[in-house]
Amino acid sequence: MFGLSKLPKNARGCLLYEPFFLIPYSMFSTYATIYMFEMGMDETAIGWITTLTLLVQVFSSFISGYLTDKLGRKWALLYFDVLSWTVGTLLWAVSQNIWFFIAAAIVNGFQRVPHTAFYCLLVEDTAPKDRTYVFSVLQFVGMLGGLFAPLGGLLVAHYGLIPGTRIMYILACICMTIQFIGRHFATRETEIGLRKMEETRSVGLMAGVREYKGVIREMLGNGPLLLIFGVYILFQFQLTLKSTYLSLFFVDHLHLDSGLVSIFPAVTSLFMLLSMWLLLPRLGDDRIHTIMLWGFFISLLSNLVLIIHLPGMMFWLITSTILAAVGTMMTYPYLEAAVANAIDDENRASVFAMLSVLILLVISPSGIIGGWAYKWDPAMPFLLIVLSFAASIALLFMYKRSAGRVEEIR
Question: What is the pTM of this model?
Fold first, then answer.
């Protein structure tokens, strides 16, 4: 369905190597929380570690714009991907107690630097009209990665949860490192990146950070931009809560077999692919905001199903998974493209860094809040997710009104 040959060199180089990251990530992320739980950490400790990671991400997000401009998109991406993921997965693989997880949380928290650099490298040399296509391909690659999640379940079923998860982390360490090196040689520095490297050659960290003042003023003066950022922040908030507590909810509260949990990411990927092939082409590109609104509503329903006790548990879990997959496909590519097109290329690294800081300031307490909420009632984190989707719908209505018309995301 998707041809990489249609993409610019950088987007093609970025996406070509993404499976080396997304396949092992989809395997271990399903078991990361359960792994910590089995290693002796309770729900509150898991929440504190999640929050620590997010707090480090706030700091790394704040400096990511400066580092991405200073080092260049390619080198910032390589250096900090190796630090946050190669070193991070290795620490998780050999963890013995909470201190290993704390060290891994700090190291992995620097992932926001390569996140900003990757975002710039992916879109800066890509025409605005092609960015929805780029993010659709990225989502497609992510879905293919999710189809491999059951391999993690096979490892857990054969070796046990802790040894199986350790194997997944070691495989991730190897595969991700291959990706980082391969992508580095498959891409080139963007034109804006080269200019920013020259402009910041003699600019120190504090001077670079002070330049954020002007960026923040421009952001605060742009109402529609703040509204679409609000939608994006809430989207990231619910992703954090769900990725942290969904697998634990299945195993600890619903008492599903841990090997069975890996089926759900595969089901998600399968129905996202079906949605992409069968549903989205029929919806068209002239009602983007309406599609997103329906996507948020479907996502809201998918989480509501989880917190309503209904007979036939497995049927409703599958239904929730399918609804979540369809809802995500109706929101993610369009939301990412909307945000990308709302940011000026000239200040992309700095603005995206500030957006990342805003996201993390909002979701940093989510680990602790989710931990407390889960301990009080395992369904509570999913009620928070339902409320976040309801707020997203309200903000998107306000965004449409403030923009004055329904914009076509090209």
Answer: 0.69
Q: How many CA atoms lie within 13 A of 270 on its CB side?
A: 12
Q: Average the pLDDT over 256-263 and give the result.
A: 72
CA pair distance 392, 36, nearest whole angstrom: 31
pLDDT per position as a tens digit, 294-312: 999 999 999 998 888 766 6
Query: What is the rounded CA–CA span in Å between residue 62 and residue 78?
Result: 18
**Residue ranges of the alpha helices (H) in 72-160?**
73-81, 88-93, 98-108, 112-123, 131-146, 149-159
Residues 62, 357 contacting (CB under 8 angstroms): yes
Please report the sign of the dihedral spanned by the C-alpha atoms of residue 270, residue 133, residue 410, residue 392. positive
Percent of the chain clearing pLDDT 90 (strictly above): 24
Hey, what are 162's tokens? 């802790």
CA-CA-CA-CA dihedral for 226, 363, 25, 275, to nearest 10: -50
> What is the torsional sign of CA 221, 225, 228, 230?
negative
Q: Report the C-alpha gap between 285 and 395 in whole angstroms.
A: 21
319-366 per-position pLDDT tens digit = 888 999 888 888 887 787 777 777 776 677 777 777 777 777 777 676
Task: Pull the structure tokens for residue 27.
Answer: 């395997």
